Amino acid sequence: MPAEVAQFVFDLSLPPALGPEDFIVADSNREAAGWIARWPDWPGPVLALHGAPGAGKSHLLGIWAQRAGARILAGGDLAAADPAELAAAGAVALDDAGRVAGDAAAERTLFHLHNLLKEAGGFLLLAAREPPARWPVALPDLASRLKAAPAVGLGEPDDVLLAQVLAKLFADRQLAIGPEIVQAMLARMERSFAEARRLVAEIDAASLAQGRSITLPLVRAILAQQG
To answer: What transmembrane ranges does the database entry give (predicted)?
Structure first.
């Protein structure tokens, strides 16, 4: 009896398109996008973006970093960084910035980086799930500086934006889908960017595993499994 041949599924999707022209502006993110567009006309050296995963914070941070010539790094990498070396760039973009809270070394680095950039007329853009005022920062001087910075939220999407996001997520994977697919998903899915990403990935994986195109029956079957 011949041995069964395992079917391997490879994720061949391209990296998401994250250029300025790829950012979808809607009511939920319009204020944040406006702040990025107004740079360098900010009231101070620091701006904080906050919102749920997938809301577009990292996308806006990347757009700003490209415009400002900023250094980009993650909050988890800040403790080992040299604040003077970072500040020499004149602009720094810190993603997942809330991770510095409670890490003594990271808090000190961020405190010194803030001061160096302010003295040099530079800029610092932070992105996190929560606004800095809610971070459990132990260093009092850093906490006061963060609380003084403008904090702009990115909200959850409405149906119009979520439909565009779903279409973009499929396009990022080089998948062409019809509007009936998007409408079926909108009728059953949780209204969040994170769920949109997860669901598109699951539909793509099911399509590859079954060796079939993305059809309405396939999508409905996956949605039914979600309850």
So the answer is: none
